[in-house]
Design goal:
Helices cover 4% and strands 55% of the residues. By secondary structure, the chain is mostly beta strands. The strands form 2 sheets. A 4-stranded antiparallel sheet has the order 1-6-3-4, with no helix packed on it. A 3-stranded antiparallel sheet has the order 5-2-7. 23% of the residues are buried.
Length: 102
């Protein structure tokens, strides 16, 4: 499943931290986090994709905490980038974003 966490113009480009929690009681979740420049927001066609990480297994009942603001900063202006999370179809995760401006 591919879910947009921040759309262009959400003013979330100044992110302090992201927590991704695998809430499943027994199965790992496979997670990717990316910054995407869309050519057409309505069809989600991608011009550019940059992965912060790809296909990382988060064990059950465990959280992944990213707190490097420099790594998490990106152009989230109206003409900028979106942030997407991709998880497997049966994965269950909660995402918390701590950012200036949101």
């Amino acid at each position: 499943m591919h879910v947009e966490l921040l759309a262009p113009g959400d003013n979330g480009g100044d992110i302090d931290s992201i927590t991704i929690a695998n809430t499943h009681s027994s199965l790992d979740a496979t997670v990717s986090l990316s910054i995407v420049k869309l050519s057409d927001a309505s069809s989600l066609n991608s011009l550019e994709t940059y992965y912060l990480f790809k296909s990382v297994a988060i064990p059950s009942a465990t959280s992944l905490f990213l707190n490097n603001g420099d790594m998490l900063s990106f152009d989230n202006s109206v003409s900028g980038y979106s942030m997407f999370i991709t998880v497997g179809p049966s994965d269950i995760v909660d995402v918390s974003i701590n950012a200036n401006g949101i």
